[in-house]
Amino acid sequence: MRSAFHFAPVAAALVLFAGVAQAIDFRSVNEPAILYDAPSVQAKRLFIIAPGTPVEVVVVLDKWVKVRDPNGSLSWIEARQLANTRTVLVSSERAIARRSPDEAAAVAFEAVKDVVLELTGSASNGWVSVRHRDGASGYLRVTDVWGL
Questions:
Q1: What is the CATH number of the domain that holds 102?
Q2: Under 8 Å between Cβ of 130 and 88
């Protein structure tokens, strides 16, 4: 009979692998695209998603990707309609972008719910660097956006 000591390295490796396997991948829609209920153009068309909208990649199947949209709905999109450019969607009613990642920093711009912003840096210490399509840049609280 083996002791628990012999299984500890295996358990640690499984926990580490599970953490890696749970990484969330987000992409952005690069053109107006039809979302389907199955991975086929013959499937039921659900709705059209706007360009720039961030989506969470759930499953990749050849030329199709199952995605979760900002409302939480699952559907299929053609892989060619997804860009590597990352965007986020403002999820709060009003988000205030600051000139630096600090609540006391000057206001750079404000954005309202459902505005799409370009992601210009990774999230750090509760803040994320973004750029508005008019060129204004700033830092938003990660709790004010969806798509990270």
A1: 2.30.30.40
A2: yes
